[in-house]
């Protein structure tokens, strides 16, 4: 499972074209952006018109966006208070969550979420000075009864060092900057990993 996460900035036409070229190679695109709702909705409508599968678009912690755009998936922050009630009232929506502990992953499994993102696995620019998860923490995370997707500092050169047991990878910069040929190399690295 490959989950791309948009960079936290206003998305451009170039971003739209880039993610559209990745559409067949990724399983989801989390829309994590500070864009105003109307601009983000226009961007969504445009990328869908250009062939990006709508069912691969994932609202980031925004129930209103999910409902207004008739999306079929949402990703919640670890601290989202509305997660449990949302799951109860939206049985047909795919739900995922960011996690940082085995206990949170177990809670997500108990709620029957589709998958969790867990990290960070490697040092990353988005968490400067914060140590990656330990081997023991990773082992406890991937032992949970839910698909656990690795997040944090993953690159083409370190995917082979990823601890075993993950169901996929999620990334911002990796998928933001990857070329078509690098995507093929990433697929090969992932098939070697699993």
TrEMBL record:
Signal peptide as annotated in the record: none
Sorted UniProt keywords: Thiamine biosynthesis
InterPro entries, A to Z: Aldolase_TIM, ThiamineP_synth_sf, ThiamineP_synth_TenI
Annotated pathway: Cofactor biosynthesis; thiamine diphosphate biosynthesis
Domain (Thiamine phosphate synthase/TenI): residue spans on this chain: 49-173
Protein origin, superkingdom: Bacteria
A family per Pfam: TMP-TENI
Keyword flag Methyltransferase: no
Protein name: Thiamine phosphate synthase
Organism (species): Staphylococcus pettenkoferi
